[in-house]
Design a protein that fits this description.
The protein has helices at residues 17-27, 169-181, 197-204, and strands at 2-12, 36-43, 51-56, 59-75, 78-91, 109-124, 127-131, 140-150, 153-163. With 205 residues, the protein is an alpha+beta fold. The chain starts with a strand and ends with a helix.
């Protein structure tokens, strides 16, 4: 089981050019790093924004929001809702239990295409440092810029996901946000657009 502190923002449309440029040149250690492309299959649970169930890369992931949203102001143009999540992942070496063939065209399962840039930060005390590899990093935070497609409609998202010891999670999120958003003044990120993927599905499906 993995416990994380997370904050995400979603907006309609493609990633604005200035946002993508900021992320590549101010956040990524290598501006030529290629994004990850994948398709996750979410179970749509109307009215339930505290539970996320999805099929991802041959496994089943279950996320449960452990604490209610906490509104946070990160900078003059950035405010969001921080959520604490617990995540379980189940896999099957036979690749039979969580196959897409079992789902078929059942409309309760929703395909979510993702093209994601990401940068990992290692946190030591009150300092967050971007690192080139996740090897050996057990206390830190990941920053993501994601192009999302649901039912032919495009969204874009910025997200922070802190991990580590439970007592360090809040600190890991905040010190990384301080580094990231000290160089950000492009597009206001507002609390009304801040929620997890279950909240996005409520709007997009």
């Amino acid at each position: 089981m993995l416990t994380t502190y997370e904050v995400r923002w979603f907006n309609l449309g493609n990633i604005p050019e200035n946002i993508e440029s900021w992320f590549k040149h101010s956040c990524l250690l290598s501006s030529t790093k290629l994004p990850e492309k994948r398709e996750d299959i979410y179970l749509y649970t109307p009215g339930c924004d505290y539970l996320g169930i999805k099929l991802r890369q041959g496994g089943l992931e279950i996320k449960w929001r452990y604490l209610e949203k906490t509104a946070m102001q990160f900078s003059s143009v950035v405010a969001g809702n921080v959520e604490k999540w617990k995540k379980w992942r189940c896999s099957d070496s036979s690749e039979e239990s969580f196959s897409l063939q079992q789902i078929g065209d059942n409309p309760v399962w929703v395909k979510v295409g993702k093209v994601r840039y990401s940068q990992l930060y290692q946190v030591v005390g009150k300092k967050a440092q971007a690192v080139s590899s996740d090897g050996g990093v057990d206390n830190g935070c990941s920053l993501e810029l994601t192009d999302v497609e649901i039912n032919g409609n495009k969204w874009w998202s910025i997200g922070l996901e802190a991990f580590g010891e439970d007592c360090d999670l809040q600190n890991n999120l905040h010190v990384t946000a301080d580094v990231v958003f000290s160089r950000y003044d492009i597009f206001p990120l507002q609390a009304e657009n801040s929620y997890g993927y279950p909240g996005l599905l409520e709007l997009a499906v």
